[in-house]
Amino acid sequence: MSVAENLELIREKIKNYPQVNLIAVSKTIDSTKIIEAINADCKIFGENKVLEAKDKWVALKSQYPNVKLHLIGHLQSNKAKEAIEIFDVIQTLDSEKLAGELFKEMQKQKKFPEFFVQVNIGEEPQKSGIAPSLVKEFVADIKAKYNFNITGLMAIPPADEEPALYFALLKKIADENNLKNVSMGMSGDFETAIDMGSNYIRIGTLIFGERQ
Ligand SMILES: *Cc1c(COP(=O)(O)O)cnc(C)c1O
Fold this sequence. Notes:
Bound molecules: pyridoxal-5'-phosphate
Number of strands: 8
Number of helices: 9
Order of helices and strands: HEHEHEHEHEHEHEHEH
Distance between the termini: 17 Å
């Protein structure tokens, strides 16, 4: 199946949910296939590694300036410069230290991306993200200190559990903090995520096939 055919199937499934934005996750996928998706009307892409994203997207963005790029992988403070250069939305804000480095780069580059806070929704020690009970304080601190444009939350639920309750919890925390965007749901669980209130689904495999 082609990228365009895969997209058609996904769009068919989400056509009754006009609030849902489809993020095509193009990590490890080369520019030729990304362009197939752009030509099939994909407008939002997600990458999880800053340097890989820069390698591909400096050229792609100059060719397709209306496409938006979201960072969906962990961001180290020492890559703040490159992240501000290339991403329109950073979904993985997860520490004060990172916010401080991003703030400096934003002033230097005069570029002001939108932010989602990553939440460690299953409180898993190996995952990054703010603990659910600390989101309110974190969002308030970062807004007060840096005035970031934080518009949403993002999370990846624990791999081997039923995700619905985690999705519901993320949506609840977003509502409590008046954040309109909720990024949750991947190839295997996006329909559940939409039922629970997701408005940004992040789909890789179903669009581009299995990654190497
Ligand atoms: C890779 C990735 C996805 C896409 O996963 P698929 O199962 O291929 O759809 C979504 N979100 C994040 C954070 C990812 O790293």
